[in-house]
Design a protein that fits this description.
heterodimer; A: 9 helices; 25% strand; globular; disordered N terminus; disordered C terminus; B: 400 residues; mainly alpha; 4 strands; 2% strand; binds adenosine-5'-triphosphate; binds magnesium ion
């Protein structure tokens, strides 16, 4: 089934009919004169990889920012685990178990890998209430290792400065940071852009492994090969609007491209 | 199936050598260059004037740098955030005036000290709120502030000009020394604290199966600290003993070094300075940190002002003026703290203050005219900032 023109107010269930973990309903966002989003709706289920595709400026990154609490929508609703949520800050989203890997990698170059993995969530001990808390540095390092191992993530020594890592390694740190916390939903904005063949493969495998562990994944990508390799469903945005929602195994590259470029309606008519 | 990158190493901590090499490659040279610079400067001045490395002169030098050192610490915090505070010297002047005027009104010297520090806290907090909440660049807020505080200083002291201090307690801050035996106890405490911290960390890492320092390298590091502590205390004891003001500075350096390196707050300062947006997305409260750091900088300015007033024995319209501001920024930057945020340490400020202080002191010994002093100091600052900029560019090109 390929439903072009998603109804804006009814949750779309996956093929198996389970309840979605994340449900975005008709969100809108205006930046000054730019109407960045004008009705975006999508669902992500546990263990599912949803690809968010669309042309440059279609509103993909903005959509992710709404879900990660970096920006707040002007209108529309976001449901998480069936409850309406108000994601007013990244901290709120993180508390719910939503983690994001941003297009512009949000890493601190001047800190080492383990500091970046735990940034904003440092393990600590209160020495004197009200005064700065003592970091538990070795404990952080110790806790990171098994999680990275379980996900098959190989990184240089964790005390390496992020500034001295390669692009792929930086991307891996960013992804690892998102998955280290037992997150329920991981969103990735163009996780394989600027990566070489081997490194792309590595990140895609990591995404599959995440979904295999029951994590819901929402991934933005311009690379249709990547999308068709890992995604279970493909949601298409055009000019800030959801225009199509494909189940991967029931669609083709042509159909997705047509939806992205705006000739989807004609395609639908021809069928 | 595991993810392979060109360097597939197990996620464990690397050796300290690799670690250090990495940091150097990333443009973080640590204390090494500034200590080398200091040695060169000392050798040059000593060869020109044999009194330079005398116990008496080094004791004077220690006293001379306490004010710059305090302001340098405040400025280091600000620079770590990637901001700048151009008002710190003017704040020290206002604090000095508050101290002296209250003291001369017959108020208990300790209350005068607290009031002077509070003055710095209030001014710093005000600037921090202005920068953070309204979003005016720190450069402008503190420059405007600096002018304003100089006006306040003039208004306080204008009719009287220079106001001398009479309180012995206040004069004693910069004029007293601890006895020789107490100096050795300080050295002992420093060595014990350092050794204990190394061993504690080593045990913690060992228990968690992480790479750790070998006993040999711990012993080596401790030996270095023992020698340094012994030489410092020995030299200072050969004159009048460890100056109290120097001890206060050292205590602040140790305290804030701990805060920046080992606390969550310190980590967040580096994160905000390294990548503000990343810090924000990681849920770090940037506003709180900014306001806190500007407040701290104001407080350090005030503490420097108190020590400066005590050393001069007065407060005057010239307090906090002259080259004090540039000296304190220079102390931080020469020490190796980056103007671009996120890189540096409190120890760097101390080392940088010694470099600036040594140059001033050495040229005084040679009775060089002020013109030469200004030119040399300006040159040193320019070199330090240039090195900072070049290593930053190298980081940018080599970094990713
Ligand atoms: N903070 C902002 N202020 C103003 N306009 C914005 C802002 N963020 C996004 N926009 C605008 O919103 C629209 C959607 O941007 P968005 O970044 O979401 O696109 P995208 O689909 O991620 O594109 P790309 O594939 O290039 O990353 C664009 O027109 C963009 O210019
Ligand atoms: Mg984008």
């Amino acid at each position: 089934m390929t439903d072009v023109q998603v109804p804006e107010d009814q949750p779309v269930t996956a093929g198996d009919g389970t309840a979605p973990l994340l449900s975005v309903r008709a969100i809108r966002k205006r930046f000054g004169a730019v109407q960045a989003l004008q009705g975006v709706s999508l669902d992500v289920h546990p263990g599912e990889v949803v690809a968010l595709v669309g042309d440059n400026g279609a509103g993909k990154s903005t959509t992710i920012k709404m879900i990660s609490g970096v920006e707040t929508p002007d209108d529309g609703e976001i449901f998480f685990e069936g409850q309406p949520v108000h994601l007013t800050s990244p901290a709120v989203a993180e508390r719910l178990g939503i983690q994001t890997v941003y297009q512009d990698l949000a890493l601190c170059d001047n800190l080492d890998i383990v500091s970046n993995l735990f940034l904003g969530r440092e393990l600590h001990r209160t020495l004197i209430p009200g005064l700065p808390k003592l970091m538990r540095k070795s404990e952080m390092e110790k806790r990171a290792i098994p999680v990275l191992k379980e996900l098959g993530i190989n990184l240089p020594p964790l005390s390496t400065l992020v500034a001295s890592l390669s692009g792929g390694q930086r991307q891996t740190v960013a992804v690892a940071r998102a998955v280290l916390w037992g997150s329920k939903l991981v969103m990735l904005d163009e996780p394989t852009a600027a990566l070489g063949v081997t490194q792309t493969k590595a990140v895609l495998e990591l995404i599959e492994r995440l979904a295999g562990n029951g994590v819901a994944v929402l991934m933005i990508s311009h690379n249709m090969t990547d999308v068709f390799q890992v995604a279970d469903r493909i949601v298409v945005l055009r000019l800030g609007r959801t225009v199509a929602n494909f189940v991967k195994c029931e669609t083709s590259l042509d159909q997705v491209v047509a939806a992205i470029t705006g000739s989807a309606e004609e395609v639908a008519i021809q069928e | 199936m595991s993810i392979q990158f060109e360097r597939t190493l197990q996620p464990k901590s690397g050796g300290w050598v690799e670690n250090w090499r990495d940091r150097v490659r990333a443009g973080d040279l640590g204390l090494l260059p500034v200590i080398l610079a200091l040695i060169v400067i000392w050798v040059i001045f000593e060869s020109v004037n044999g009194n330079f490395l005398s116990g008496r002169n080094l004791s004077n030098l220690t006293l001379q740098i306490t004010e710059i050192g305090m302001l340098g610490i405040g400025e280091t915090f600000i620079l770590l955030l990637g901001e700048i505070d151009l008002s710190i010297a003017a704040v020290s002047g206002v604090a000095a005036a508050v101290l002296v005027l209250l003291s001369n009104a017959g108020i208990n010297p300790w209350i005068c000290i607290i009031a002077a520090i509070l003055t710095g806290v209030i001014i710093g907090g005000f600037q921090g709120i202005w920068v953070t909440m309204i979003g005016v660049p720190a450069f402008i807020v503190t420059l405007a502030g600096s002018l304003g505080y100089q006006g306040i200083l003039l208004a306080f002291l204008g009719s009287t000009g220079t106001v001398p201090i009479f309180s012995h307690t206040l004069l004693g801050i910069a004029a007293s020394y601890i006895p020789a035996w107490a100096g050795w106890i300080v050295a002992l405490i420093a060595v014990v604290l350092y050794t204990a911290s190394l061993i504690l960390v080593q045990r913690g890492r060992r228990a968690r199966n992480l790479s750790f320092l070998s006993l040999r390298s711990i012993a080596l590091r401790c030996a270095v600290v023992v020698v340094v502590a012994a030489v410092v205390v020995g030299v200072l004891n050969s004159y009048r003993g460890f100056p109290v003001a120097g001890l206060i500075l050292l205590a602040f350096v140790v305290l804030f070094s701990f805060v920046t390196q080992s606390t969550v707050f310190g980590r967040h300062i580096y994160a905000v300075g390294g990548n503000k947006e990343a810090a924000r997305r990681a849920g770090i409260n940037i506003r709180k940190i900014r306001i806190a750091i500007f407040t701290l900088s104001g407080a350090m300015g005030a503490i420097g002002g108190i020590i400066g007033a005590s050393r001069l024995g007065s407060a005057s319209p010239a307090s906090g003026g002259g080259d004090l501001l540039l000296d304190s920024i220079a102390a931080a930057v020469i020490g190796g703290t980056s103007l671009f945020g996120g890189r540096g340490s409190i120890w760097n400020a101390l080392a940088g203050a010694f470099v600036i202080g040594s140059v001033e002191n050495g040229m005084d010994l040679l009775s060089a005219p002020s013109s030469t002093k200004y030119i040399v100091e300006g040159g040193i600052l320019l070199i330090a900032v240039t090195i900072d900029t070049i290593t930053r560019n190298r980081r940018r090109t080599a970094g990713r």
